[in-house]
Amino acid sequence: MLKLGRAILAGIALTLAGCAALQPKLEAPAVAVNSVKVMPGQGLNVRFLIGLHVKNPNAIPLPIHGVNYTVALSGQPVVSGNTQDQPTIPAHGEQDVEIEAVADLMNGLSLANSLLSNPLQSEVPYAVKASLDVGAFLPNIPVQKSGMVNLTTGVIR
After folding, report:
1. Mean pLDDT split into 10-residue runs, the chain, 157 residues
2. Who's near 94: CB < 8 A, 6+ residues apart?
3. Angstrom distance (rounded) from CA 105 to CA 55
4. Which of 128, 130, 122 is nearest to 154 (CA)?
5. How far apart are CA 141 and CA 58, in angstroms?
6. Cα torsion at 115, 48, 105, 41 (round to 10°)?
7. Is the Cβ–Cβ distance between 141 and 28 less than 8 Å?
8. Which phi and psi angles does 20 have, rounded to 5°?
9. Which domains, from first to last, does the chain contain?
10. For the chain, what is the HEC assignment?
11. pLDDT of residue 71
């Protein structure tokens, strides 16, 4: 009886290991910002509609079930949010996606104070961190992008 139990456990372990090995290794998609539109706010919150262009380098389509994201300027999170049920990005294809974001008023005020205390600063670092949920059987795909924003021209590099 003990041998049968061990055999069953070994079979289950091998099945799970086989399923894990079959999961494809997904590359993070390339994401570019197309547009930012201010939407009507709710109370003190400022809402934005952010247009993204997403390129899928993978050999399989990416059904975007959800996106969690944060945008930081000078190390302070100023915009965050999550969205669900986005379109499927075709395999080796690209698609435009729109997400709604809410500005963090308190961190925004702290950032404004920091920028006003250093008026000669012409650029600030930015960082975007996101996690794409592409389905129950695939791991979330992390997306990170950082660089500098010119405060005078708005150019991102």
Report:
1. 57 54 70 76 73 88 87 84 87 90 76 73 83 78 81 70
2. 53, 54, 55, 56
3. 31
4. 122
5. 12
6. 140
7. yes
8. -65, -35
9. 25-150 (2.60.40.10)
10. CHHHHHHHHHHHHHHHHHHHHHCCCCCCCEEEEEEEEEEEEECCEEEEEEEEEEECCCCCCEECCEEEEEEEECCEEEEEEEEECCCEECCCCEEEEEEEEEECHHHHHHHHHHHHCCCCCCEEEEEEEEEEECCCCCCCEEEEEEEEEECCCCCEC
11. 84
Q: What are phi and psi of 11, to 5 degrees?
A: -65, -45
Identify the bridge partners of residue 67 per DSSP, sorted by sequence position. Answer: 83, 132
Phi-psi sector, 92: left (phi>0), alpha (psi -120 to 50), beta = left
- Full-prediction pTM beyond 0.85? no
